[in-house]
Each structure stands twice: as C-alpha cells, then as structure tokens.
Amino acid sequence: MSRFFPVAEPLIGERELYNVSDAVRSGWVSSLGDYIVAFEEGFARVCQRPHGVAVSNGTVALHLALHALGVGRGDEVLLPDLTFVATAHAVLMAGATPVLVDVEAEHGNLDPRAVERAITSRTRAILVVHLYGHPADMDAIAPLAQPGIHVIEDAAEAHGARIGERMVGSFGIASTFSFYGNKIITTGEGGMVLTSDDALNQRLRLLRDHGMSRERRYYHTELAFNYRMTNVQAAIGVAQLERLSEFVEKKRSIARWYAERLADRPELRFVPDRAGSTSVHWMTSPLVREDIDRDALLARLKARGVDTRPFFVPMSELPHLGGCRKVGAEDDSCGVARALSRRGFNLPSSCTLEEKDIDTICAIVREALT
Description:
alpha/beta; eight-stranded mixed beta sheet; three-stranded antiparallel beta sheet; 35% helix; globular
C-alpha cells in the first residue's frame, strides 16, 4: 500500500501560520483580540448576515442559540433523525425534548411533509440540518414555522452552500456553524452563531461570556456560559475565510470527478445538487445498492488505503434517544433515515486531493466492488 487517503484533512497554509504568529506576538491569545472581530464580521458578511458570534465549537453554538431563544423544559424541538448526535445533544442540553423527524430520500435532509405532521402545541423550534453540505428545502420548511416556533439552521457541514442567490445560514432566526478540523474552513475547534436580530445578537454575546454586564465589569446578571473562541483560533479562521470560494470550488470538483469516473457502476448512486440549490459537497457521499454489503465494502477499501466513513447512525437507534417521539411523512417512523444510514458512506473529500488522486481512489473502488 503506497499511500493512505484519509477521508478528510485540513488545508493549512502560510497565511494561517502568519496570522497565528501575529496573534501570539500581539499577546492577545485568549478571548479578546482583533482577529475575533474580523472573523465574526467577515464570516457573517459572507453568509449575508449582519451579526456573527464566535464560540468554542459547533455544539455549543447550537446550545447557545436554543438557550438564548428561551427554548427549554417542556418544549419540543424538531430535528432530522439522520444527523450527527450534537444536534440532538444540544436540545437535551437546553432541557428541551428532541422530536426525531424523518428525511427525504434524495439528500437526507428534513422531509417537509414529516415536519408538518410533527408540529404540536409544544413545538418551539425546528432545527434544520444541511446534511453533508446539501442545502435542505428551506423554501418548504420555513413557512411551516407558526408563531412561536423558531427556525434554526445547523449549517455545520455547509459553509458556502446556496439556495438560489441566498447563502445557507441566512434563513431563520439563527444559524450555527462548526469549524472543526474536517470542516470546509477550520479553526481547529470552534463555531459561530449568525443572526439578523439585533436583540438576539446582544443576548448571545451576554450568555457566551458568563452573563457579565457590558456596563459594569464582574457584574453577572444570570447563569450563563464560557463559550468563547480564542483570538488564536480566529486568526486561523480569518485566513481560511479568504479561501472559502477556492475550497467550495474544489469540493464541488472532487464530487464531480468521482461521479464522472464511477458513472458506469450501478452499485453506487451519487447525490446531485437539489434543483435551485448549490451544494458544497462537504463529503462526497454515495449510496450503495441495497444488495451490497456496505460495511464489507468499506473494510476492503480501508485495506487498500482508502479511508471512509459510514453515514451517521440515526438518532432513533441510539440508546439514550430511542425513546423520543418519531415522525415520518406518512407514519410514526423514520424508515428513510434508517435506510440511508445503512447504505451511505463518505469517500475521501479533502481539498488536498488532486484529480490524479481521485483516479487512483476510483480504481481502488472499482476493485473493491468486484
């Protein structure tokens, strides 16, 4: 085995190194500094929002948004059954009850029909995940938010994606992002909450920083959190943000290269862009045919030097979430999420990959399929 292809790795260059050195030399290495302001303002501007609140990771971004909106005990929050567990954990951290909603078969995002069935008098929020960089159907989901129901985007995997001319992250009362090391842009760890609501922006900032008054130092008005990002992390983020368009273009090229080279393999189905939307293909994520043993295929690929990941395990199959209410488009189940979870996987999708690398990986995939 001459080379191992990881499923994801960051692309860090000289600009990031310069910014980190600059932040360290400045002495502002904790939660204050020019890079934090620059990263918040720059990322919010790219996502067509006036306010960005940088935090320590994507999970706390979700929790902070829910808590700031007053979502808590006795409330229900709708979220897709097929997502990373942080989405559900943030709801539990806020004291609310997750309601697991089935997804549509094409892209694995919330099925608007199931969302409509799931809404009750206790529903306070709809958490919309843009799975693997594919925009959810916000045009159908957003109008379902009745008075008193907040729409929050979990855009951790969708930096730079679009729905028409609008950026993912510009819908709803708030949107959250992750900058973990495998995301399209990274700060190592880190996250951000975006909003267009001035009052919510101020509340997010208060709760992020121990609830300390802006007028009187060390005067704390309520139980709050230490969810701050460091200036060193933000320094990396500023440099990464300058390359967002480059990264998105590369991610889309990688997805296209895979789909073109494996188009003649009926065992695999690649996910296209939704009509009217532009996916960023955070991960190139094919589905195997139902008669294919997905896990055996992934084991053969790993033995040949190709790293992969299976799709997320549905929330309804996790022991501490299995008792949550489940809602599908036509019945009280999440059959589509379970089916996609068994069939989907992520191929190596790093921006460090070149076209010749995809040639090599596809040759290995062909061999493993036979």
